[in-house]
Amino acid sequence: MGCVCQECGREFKVDLNIPNRIWEKIKPAGKDKGAGLLCGSCIMNKIESFGEYGFMDVDEDSFNVLI
Fold this sequence. Notes:
two-stranded antiparallel ribbon, 4 strands, 18% strand, globular
């Protein structure tokens, strides 16, 4: 059992913790502040759609996104 992506409809079982300032830019359309569900693929597609180079730094102690 998992969650259903509100962008592509795919079921997913791994949640990604996205900083609020990024989430508000990529969340599904029409969702309230902080709301919505996206699979990892849709999260990455939306981040890449900004058209700028960015990087994610994920390790056990930190999570940084520059876009």
